[in-house]
């Protein structure tokens, strides 16, 4: 039977250095030559079973230490070198394994340094946000992905693009669509570009929402999508063809730094144009005011989804012809943010899922129900929050449904202008919320998930508060 061979040179070297031995002294104790031990330590010769047993008996070495894997450290290094700051520095995952094997202490030092760097970067971000709230501009910045750059720009400006709204409204009028916008858009594509629209079953197009085949001049839409989402995909394709100049002008005005960011922003602008085409500005604004911003009434009136109708409400910010200002945010049940847009008044934290007391999170316990609450910030500012869950593309048997929650917010001063104000009881007290736990200084909050950045922890062996993050 062939004997087992183990290459563990770095671990043998660690044992020798830990004992303060020279290669000659260890080689003599193991009854091998110093040159052979040197080859073992450089992983050019294996450790045989006999040598393993000799090491265990002479130096009382745990065999598991010599045969153990460094996968845990290597996986942590892989996570570190996936950071945009270090991406591309390591050409092969095997190199990280070799680093973890050859220098485990140094590798763990890198892990600790990266953890400290990440924590400091987070604190700088928090401090930057805190200073910005007090009216101080900062120049603090961090390594950002293109999607982060696009999000920051879209979220820091009004969710209104005048060129796209005007062009989409004119195109909608010229199209002459009555109650069947989908058929009108399909006819326009075929007549002007020779493109035929077809729906494909899930097994044919399992991973895509929309695909344009330039060779056959066909636009394929997934049957996973609802009819409303299929209409939006269709409207996006039309917008990219019919509103090319307007999209390009709005994209240029955003002053993005790289081509990948521009590609992402172009997609978002096409999505905006699609909503503008499905819900023309003037008609939608008039309908919204008549319906007192009842999203369910608007979705039925324009034959769109709840999410599409809410998105369009947030974009009604044309100077001189604006609606009640709304802020909007969409997250999943883990607090991951998908979209944030709208009025600048609502406090927008740069981290986490905002305050855990918002009904945005409670909506997941009541799918499909609209939750309305009056909320109050520590500075006394009050808001009405309207939240509801959304269902993603149709899932097949055995697939988990993608469910998110959408929250739209406006100041309580607009309660009389919106239908949701009627759900607020005059006697009910407002829910006390904050920007996020790391910036909130409310005492005794049962929902607190983190200590505030601005206060030291109130650790006292004699007194225990309601939260493990009690502070002084």
From TrEMBL:
Origin superkingdom: Bacteria
SMART domains in alphabetical order: HTH_XRE
Pfam short name (any one): ScfRs
InterPro entries (UniProt xref): Cro/C1-type_HTH, HTH_RamB, IrrE_HExxH, Lambda_DNA-bd_dom_sf, ScfR_C, TransReg_Diox_bact_type
Alphabetically ordered keywords of this record: DNA-binding, Transcription, Transcription regulation
Location of the HTH cro/C1-type domain: 12-66
Family membership: Belongs to the short-chain fatty acyl-CoA assimilation regulator (ScfR) family.
UniProt-recorded name of the protein: Helix-turn-helix domain-containing protein
